Amino acid sequence: MIKKIKIKNVIMLTLAGIINACGITLFLNPVGLYDSGISGTSMLLSSVTPVSLSIFLLVLNIPLFLIGLKKQGGLFTIYAIYTVGIYSLFAFLITNVFNIDFTFGSPIAKMDLLLCAIFGGVISGIGSGLAIRFGGAMDGIEVMAVIFAKRLNITVGTFCMVYNVLIYIIAGLIFNSWIIPLYSMITYYAGLKVIDAIVDGLDKARGAMIVTTKPDEICDALANAFECGATTIAAKGSYSKSEKVIVYFVVNRFQVTKMTDIVHEIDPMAYITLSEITDVFHAE
User: Fold this and answer.
1) CA–CA gap between residue 87 and residue 21 (Å, rounded)
2) Distances from the Cα of 272 to the Cα of 110, 217, 269, angstroms
3) Of 101, 201, 233, 267, which one has the fewest beta carbons inside 10 Å?
4) Contact 270, 210 (CB under 8 A)
5) 229 CB neighbour count, 10 Å cutoff
6) pLDDT above 60 (res 75)
């Protein structure tokens, strides 16, 4: 198991933990906003008890990662626990060791709740996204979602959303105010979009399925225009019963128009469908 650990992943997971700690401690915690998942739960508990945020992050997350060990695998569990450890350590250093003034709220955005909500969500989202991208996780609730969502007949996303909404409702009831919970929802949304962008890629590719009767001409033209190959799949029209070929070709979003123009110039009757691709892996 130890031999499978990659130095690159460890470096990026370390960076992810540091980034997440900065988003939480410099923007959210000073003004009482809450992150999502176990991180948000830890922030809520630390605000109503004398126990520090760092302790709750470890105590609540590590057991969840261990519970998910069998389903997620040993390497993931090691990476996840390490990431949360870095996150917890730097959250402690920033709030208790480094000489940072939190008297007037966030040291960067002061008491501006909207700025804190947006930038806290974006920065913590970057940290969480990097953690997932490099084989770990920042929050144990996602592991629980994978395990229990199917049993509850809901999606993983729905499980996480319901959990987070419950956190914000509880916070609103405890403090008899809905301002902080509502701003925290902005944090949740901002973080979610950033995580999606990092995990799925900022520039998603497009997979084109081209149904045509002139596959050779189209493949040659696309290869000359984009300097990359295509894949052909034998097909048959269900209505016409005629033999056809599906050409599968991957382009980026800026190349879609050029690709469709080339195809329809050769075969005006070609049928093209596009689908979004989050990652393209090339053989090394």
Assistant:
1) 5
2) 52, 16, 10
3) 101
4) yes
5) 11
6) yes
Inter-CA distances, 249 with 200, 235, 262, Å: 19, 16, 13
pTM of the model: 0.81
Query: What is the DSSP annotation of 79-119?
Result: HHHHHHHHHHHHHHIIIIIS----TTSBTTTBT-HHHHHHH
**Distance in angstroms (rounded) separating the CA atoms of residues 7 and 84:** 17
Residue 266 CB burial class (10 angstroms; 0-12, 13-18, ≥19): middle
- Residue 122 structure tokens: 């974006």
Map tokens 């995990």 to a residue: 199
How far is residue 33's CA from residue 55's CA, in Å, rounded to a whole number? 18
Strands (E), 200-242: 205-212, 231-236
Q: Are 83 and 138 in contact (CB under 8 A)?
A: yes
Amino acid identity for residue 132 in this structure: I
Q: Is 272 helix (H, G, I), strand (E, B) or coil?
A: strand
> What is residue 169's three-state secondary structure?
helix
Buried b (16+ CB within 10 A) or exposed e, 139-177: bbbbbbbebebeeeeeeeeebbbebbeebbeebbeeeee
Over range 63-67, report the average pLDDT: 90
**pLDDT of the residue at 232:** 94
**C-beta of residue 116 within 8 angstroms of C-beta of residue 27:** yes
